[in-house]
Amino acid sequence: MSEERKFDDTRALAKSDVSSASSKEPLVLDSEQQENAKKTGVFGKVNFFQPWFEPGTTAKEKKLIIKLDIFILTYSCLAWFLKYLDQQNITNAYANGMKEDFNMTKNQLSWLNTYFSIGTIIGSIPASLLITKLPPNIFLPACDFIWGLFVLFLYKCTTVEQMYALRFCCGFMEASANPCIHFILGSFYRKSELGRRSAFFVISGVVSQAISGFIMNGLNSSLDGRNGLPSYKWLFIIDFVIGIPIVLWGIVALPGLPNRGCKAWYLSEWDKEKIKERIETDGRTQENTPWTWGTLKTLLTSWQPYAYTLAYSFWCLTAGSYCMQFMTLFLKYKKNYTQTQINYMPDAISCVNLITMISSGIIIDLIGGRRWPVCIFVGLLMIVGFGILRSHTENAKLRLTGYIITGVYGCFTPILSGWANIACGNDPKLRAFTLSVMVAIGTSVVTPFQQYVFPSSEAPFYKQTNGFSYALAFTVCLVAWTGIGLPLLETYMEKKKKNSKQISDEEEDKVNPIFLAADI
């Protein structure tokens, strides 16, 4: 009995020593405490515009976060801006003379999208695996530059078949942008910081979609016919030129990953250690372990790739990302809108997308990181929008309202990517694998879907293929899975993990007293 008491006293003393030692360090809230603090703030007195920094952040750590925002976040936003500028240019070119110059018929615009998507499908997983091994400031800018060259080469094309090949190459090189940048953001920011950063990252793509129309109109009035080139070919050239400073900024701005030393000219030794400490405190260690068959088995038997890929696939199958194209084709079909209106009016979708992304990121952080309420609300708005489009009405005002409402779709990208980043916890390989599989599978299922359900020959109503009926059905699936199924699954897996850890700790406690008592 005395030995047991001595053991209990020893263990209590050890806990006391640890507690007193830790009290000398700056206060760091664990993830559960942060979550509880946020939940309390939501229902108490809270400023809706939550501070950029978490409560309790020291002045020195704020300077570190500002560095990360200036270098990592700005590059991320600029790269995503460039991606969507290059992705949107094909639709703008189609609506501004390319269709007539190339005598494009039937579904050739859809095939241009399809070849791009095939490239993305093939490139996503290799890119995500390479980013865990190669320096980000070399790998990502190299991909940016090469895809910029492929965009530039589009202006030299004389046949649609040549454009098919280049669009595939563009998609293959751009495949690195989505999963790799989300992986990098998840490697440097805490869970509580990811919502807003991921939202700003994706917002840059929305801004790009809006600006692309303005660039196209500017080229129509200033460079159309210059050096014998139509304005839409100048668009490909200008997009390449815009990409050059972004490539250079990536080389300068991106640091090495935390598990490889955070090599960057602007980070001090304290900064590097603090970055590692922040992520470890968040429950996400980042060990630089080698790839083995065991690693592959762990990835394939984890629940995260399947759960979040299903969610992302449902989102892709809503075809929300094609709504700007759908609206452009509708305006062109009506024949009573000017070319300027055709270029500008779809920007309303981008504005709705922008507002939704900003507000959803803030709301998620305010309600303790819970994403399912936002998924349900946004999904219901999408159901209303696709319900209007499914009616096949030719009433321009009502139909344009339907297109614009569906603009809320975009916030699902940062929501699902941030959710997956957090759910994968302390396994960087699992995070990289999950994010890449999400993009690869999501793109692979939507590629044949948009080709056969939304062929350009059936635009803008897609009556024969029931396009908007399918979009509505998959939106319902998206709401059900992200609003109910995924939260329940996550809760179940967390409880299962907690119970397993508790059983393991109890077994360890049964063994340890024997050795400790013997030592005493």
From TrEMBL:
<feature type="transmembrane region" description="Helical">
    <location>
        <begin position="231"/>
        <end position="254"/>
    </location>
</feature>
<dbReference type="Pfam" id="PF07690">
    <property type="entry name" value="MFS_1"/>
</dbReference>
<dbReference type="GO" id="GO:0022857">
    <property type="term" value="F:transmembrane transporter activity"/>
</dbReference>
<dbReference type="GO" id="GO:0016020">
    <property type="term" value="C:membrane"/>
</dbReference>
<feature type="compositionally biased region" description="Basic and acidic residues">
    <location>
        <begin position="1"/>
        <end position="14"/>
    </location>
</feature>
<dbReference type="InterPro" id="IPR011701">
    <property type="entry name" value="MFS"/>
</dbReference>
<dbReference type="InterPro" id="IPR036259">
    <property type="entry name" value="MFS_trans_sf"/>
</dbReference>
<comment type="similarity">
    <text>Belongs to the major facilitator superfamily. Allantoate permease family.</text>
</comment>
<feature type="transmembrane region" description="Helical">
    <location>
        <begin position="112"/>
        <end position="132"/>
    </location>
</feature>
<feature type="transmembrane region" description="Helical">
    <location>
        <begin position="138"/>
        <end position="155"/>
    </location>
</feature>
<feature type="transmembrane region" description="Helical">
    <location>
        <begin position="306"/>
        <end position="327"/>
    </location>
</feature>
<keyword id="KW-1133">Transmembrane helix</keyword>
<feature type="region of interest" description="Disordered">
    <location>
        <begin position="1"/>
        <end position="33"/>
    </location>
</feature>
<feature type="transmembrane region" description="Helical">
    <location>
        <begin position="432"/>
        <end position="450"/>
    </location>
</feature>
<feature type="transmembrane region" description="Helical">
    <location>
        <begin position="470"/>
        <end position="489"/>
    </location>
</feature>
<feature type="transmembrane region" description="Helical">
    <location>
        <begin position="372"/>
        <end position="389"/>
    </location>
</feature>
<protein>
    <recommendedName>
        <fullName>Major facilitator superfamily (MFS) profile domain-containing protein</fullName>
    </recommendedName>
</protein>
<feature type="transmembrane region" description="Helical">
    <location>
        <begin position="199"/>
        <end position="219"/>
    </location>
</feature>
<feature type="transmembrane region" description="Helical">
    <location>
        <begin position="401"/>
        <end position="420"/>
    </location>
</feature>
<keyword id="KW-0813">Transport</keyword>
<feature type="transmembrane region" description="Helical">
    <location>
        <begin position="347"/>
        <end position="367"/>
    </location>
</feature>
<keyword id="KW-0472">Membrane</keyword>
<keyword id="KW-0812">Transmembrane</keyword>
